[in-house]
Amino acid sequence: MAVNVETLDKLERKLTLTLPVEAIRTEVEARLRKLARSVKMDGFRPGKVPMSVVAQRYGYSVQYEVVNDKVGQAFAQAASEASLRVAGQPTITEKDSAPEGQMAFDAVFEVLPEVKIADLSDAEIEKVSAEVSDEAIERTVDILRKQRRSFATRAQGSSAADSDRVTVDFSGTIDGEAFEGGKAEDFQFVVGEGQMLKEFEDAVCGMKVGESKTFPLRFPADYGGKDVAGKTADFMVTLKKLEASHLPEVNEAFAKTLGVKEATVEGLRADIRKNLEREMKLRLQARNKRAVMDALLNKAELDLPKATVQAELGRMIDAARADLRARGMKDADKAPIPEDVFRPEAERRVRLGLVLSELVRANALQATPEQLRAQVEELAASYEKPGEVVRYYYADNNRLREVEAMVLENNVAEFVLGKARVTEKTLGFDELMNTQQQ
Fold first, then answer.
1. Residues 302/351, Cβ–Cβ less than 8 Å
2. What would the pLDDT profile of 260-291 be if each residue is shown by its tens digit?
3. Structural domain boundaries enclosing 351
4. pTM
5. Rg of the chain over CA atoms, in angstroms?
6. Of 40, 175, 229, 367, whose CB is crowded by the most CB atoms within 10 A?
């Protein structure tokens, strides 16, 4: 097999492959003979179909398979011999001319880039830390109480106030015309919890059962309903039912309803602290890891393989369509999703993946079995039956590879933090948890 490698662009290469026609013909005949032993055709007993008939029916498809296989093998061998690190799949086309007794093909493909990482000792990284506050624990207790509250009808003549559950009929018009979503009967919401626009809640506050009221309401310019966004509607609302909320006492019985192992008030708060610390740790890891990766990318120089970026774009678009299907969107597979929306993130992911691979290879940062086990057990710790979750991960290599990727990122983060100029910063618990994760 003769091989010729050309450089077409920074990362684009072309291999010219030649294959003996006789070798292809021999393989086609061998496959047809094997096929003839089991193929079924009308008018012939199994295994008794003449070779000429089998060749007429299946010859083209078998030859196509053989050529594909042979070219694939030849490409893999040629790339290996030339020490080429191929990115993505090659585009292979048959040449019009070839030496006598040969078939010739051009394989155009990209190679993985050389990754240059500058000195990390002058990289500046802000590493944040935080602690779970007592206030955060008390707020969580309040949330749990609200989730288990009860409601009782308020005394006749009472006025609606914050924390009351109201049942109302309402109807709205814009310029005298009804609009979609502007009318409802026996609609319930809790006053003061932001379920309705503030103007609506303000109008209901102070009303008594049986009372009706009309009021104007201006929809925000960024309101989800585009037809009414920025417009002013006239509403009429009638209060039909008024219920006061009752929060459960924080005691052993309450702790027991939450499934806390140590069903005491102290046990409940300890359990909440443990869960908040686990969530806080994940947030800290994500934020600090992002800071490390940003610093690392700023120190890296490389060209991006177009094929790898395109493959990542395809995965992201497939994930977006799957999300649309999960949300109940019809014909999600046909929804127009422009690639440009995802391209910056796809390029970042590819660039980061190549940089991480180089750093892991050059500094022996591969995940150890002990690290892998520890990460799996940490992921399983928040579940009711951790042992089953551990077995779930170890039963599937794809799941383990996902965990391994997490460990590799952690290893890289620790390595870079050990080299860089790190500034420590302490955040309040609320500040950390309210920061939108990128």
1. yes
2. 888 899 999 999 999 999 999 989 999 999 99
3. 255-434
4. 0.72
5. 33
6. 367
